[in-house]
Amino acid sequence: MSTITLISIFILCLLIGAILLLLWQRQKGKTIPLAVIFVLGFFAVGLGAIIGFVHKGEDYQAYQKLQWRTLAPEQIAPLVAKGYTVFVDITSDWCMICKTNQAEVTHREQVVNALMADNIILMQGNWSEANKTIESYMRNEGVPGTPYNKIYGPSHPNGILLPSKLSISDVLNGLTAAR
User: SS3 of 158, please?
Assistant: First the structure.
C-alpha cells in the first residue's frame, strides 16, 4: 500500500475511535452534542468511500506493461499471415478523445491483459507531429485524423475498424472476432 493510503486508513481509524469515545462519554452522562458525532461520522464515511474507490482492485499501472511497436503498415499483412492479431492505435497528444480512450479503455487492466496475449502485436502511431508513415497509412485508410483504432487478424485480414470513442467491449469483441 502507498503511504497516502496508510495515512488515510490511520486517519479513518482515528475518526472511528473518536466517534466511539464520544458515544461512550455521552452514554456515561457527558453532554456531547449529537451534531459533533454526526459530523465525524460523515467524515469517516466519506474517507472510507474514497479509500474504497481508489482501491477497487484494478491495477491502474498495468498499461505500462504493454509493448508498443512503432506503426509499420507494411508489416501488418505478413504478421496476420503468420497468425498474429495486430492492434493498431493512431493517437496524438492533443486529441482529447484519444486521451479518454486511453483512460477509459486501453489503459484498463482488463483490456491490457487481453492485449498482452502472445499472439497480439501492438502498433502505435503518435501523430502529434508530422509523420509520413502515419500520413500515408491514414490516407490509404481514408481517415482524416485521430483517434483511429483497427484490429487485423486471421479472420479479418483487412481489419475491423473500431469506433472513435472506444469501449472495453469494442476492443475485446474486436480482438475475439479478428482471431
Answer: strand
